[in-house]
Amino acid sequence: MALPQFSQFDIQPHRDSEMLDAARQLLATGRFEGPMLLLDKRRIEQEAKRFQAALPRVAPHYAVKCNPEPEVLATLKNAGCEFEIASKDELDRLL
User: Fold this and answer.
1) CA torsion sign, 2 to 83 to 9 to 42?
2) Under DSSP, is residue 78 helix (H, G, I), strand (E, B) or coil?
3) Residue 84 forms beta bridges with which residues?
């Protein structure tokens, strides 16, 4: 079985114009003064599926502590990911 080529893995951040436009609109409201993180559930699902396609014999496990937001966890669950937890709080989030 041939190993996947390194080019299949994109290590550069995406410059999605739709997400950048959304960030600019939010900033224009003046309600956000500090750091902001925008997540695209479609992109999360696409990247999870791309990972699974590149490594079909590997069951991806997402570390809940990386980002325990319910929408992120639900999106990854729907994409077929499993989870790695290190605390009861993380287990409660998944349940």
Assistant:
1) positive
2) helix
3) 63
Question: How far is it, in rounded angstroms, from Cα 5 to Cα 35?
Answer: 35
pLDDT tens digits for range 22-71: 778 877 888 777 777 778 888 899 999 999 999 999 988 999 999 999 99
Distance CA 17, CA 28 (A): 16
The C-alpha atoms of residue 76 and residue 66 are separated, in whole angstroms, by 13
Contact 62, 83 (CB under 8 A): yes
Q: What is the pTM of this model?
A: 0.69
CA dist 58 → 52, 53, 93 (Å):
7, 10, 24
